[in-house]
């Protein structure tokens, strides 16, 4: 049975993004034969910026993801589901981004579904 963890707190600045990043990467390093998926449900997408490279390059990569019509983000997935709520899209996996392909310092088995500012409106 797969492990599932959630990190949540409605207060900002308490370390949710950092803790999620550390937990996800450590689990991925310790379990190299398993896929580890981080789902960034924060409209600020701080976790996504860290995973995508941090220090400016992560923000630029996230902006590139957000700039296209069919975004590979959690918000893009919700847009697809909202437009056809009763149908399977069959394309759920296209929203997964391999962390290693964006940041060579991360394990190859770590995946991300990027955050999206549209989550505020979608909620």
Question: Which structural traits does this protein have?
Answer:
single chain, 123 residues, mainly alpha, 6 helices, globular
How would you sum up this structure in a few lines?
The chain is mainly alpha-helical and 123 residues long. It contains six helices and three strands, in the order αβαααβαβα. The protein is globular, with a radius of gyration of 14 Å.
How would you explain this protein's 3D organization?
The protein has 123 residues and is mostly helical. It has one domain. The chain has helices spanning 16-30, 46-51, 57-66, 74-83, 99-102, 119-122, and strands spanning 36-39, 97-98, 110-113. It has a 3-stranded mixed beta sheet with strand order 1-3-2. The radius of gyration is 14 Å and the shape is globular. The model has no long low-confidence stretch (mean pLDDT 93).
Topology (SSEs and partners):
Blueprint: H1 16-30, E1 36-39, H2 46-51, H3 57-66, H4 74-83, E2 97-98, H5 99-102, E3 110-113, H6 119-122
Parallel strand pairs: 1-3
Antiparallel strand pairs: 2-3
Overall morphology: globular
Distance between the termini: 30 Å
Number of domains: 1
Q: Write down the secondary-structure element order.
A: HEHHHEHEH
Number of strands: 3
Strand order of the largest sheet: 1-3-2
What does the average pLDDT come to?
A: 93
**Helix coverage percent:** 25-40%
Structural class, judged by helices and strands? Answer: mainly alpha
Low-confidence region ranges: none
Counting H and I runs of at least 4 residues, what is the number of helices?
6
Radius of gyration: 14 Å
Main sheet: strands, sense, barrel: 3 strands, mixed
* Strand residue content: 5-15%
